[in-house]
Amino acid sequence: MDSVEDRLAALEAQVAALSERHTAAPPPAPEGTFWALDGLKQRLPPDGSGAVLYTGTVRVAGQHYDWQYGRTVDDLLAADWTELPSTLSALAHPVRLRLLREILGGRQSTSELAEIEELGTTGQLHHHLRQITAAGWLRSAGRGRYTVPAERMVPLLAILTAAGR
Asked: How far apart are CA 14 and CA 26, in angstroms?
């Protein structure tokens, strides 16, 4: 059995190692203003029409999300856009955007959301929750709780970023 002194020394070494990791300098920023764009261009064929890429690393409500998605312009223009209006229109209401903001901020139950007077009656609240859930921006987590699905977190924030520009 190790002595108390040996065990204490081992603990002190572990604490020192953790402290060094915690206080280490952050990694250097990528070079250039358009570092992500430059990386995308390097991956494209020279004769193509281009591509769109969105990516993000997000910490919200105690969760971490990493996401990257890209499509060529040719694929985007050739895609079927008939389903997009319902997906986008689900976001085109101030109450629904407020609901998403509240849920991202940690108010995830219908009882917590119903306490916010600006969201309307309970019936109106459920109507809006159904609309954004049907469009895939929310997922029922059971027992009247809602979350933004992981695969929708960065796309939602990218749309909000684009709309605010």
From this structure: 21
Is there a contact between 43 and 88 (Cβ–Cβ < 8 Å)?
A: no
Owner of token pair 């430059």: 38
**φ and ψ of 31, to 5 deg:** -75, 140
The whole-angstrom separation of Cα 54 and Cα 68 is: 6
**pTM of structure:** 0.74
Q: What angle do CA 118, 123, 125 make, to 5 degrees?
A: 45
* Three-state DSSP state, 155: helix
**Helix (H), strand (E) at residue 26:** none
pLDDT tens sequence for the chain (165 residues):
567 777 777 767 776 666 665 555 566 666 788 888 888 889 888 888 899 998 999 998 888 999 999 999 999 999 999 999 999 999 999 999 999 999 999 999 999 999 999 999 999 999 999 999 999 999 999 999 999 999 999 999 999 999 987
Distance CA 129, CA 139 (A): 9
Residue 1, SS3?
A: coil
Nearest-5° angle of CA 122, CA 61, CA 55?
110
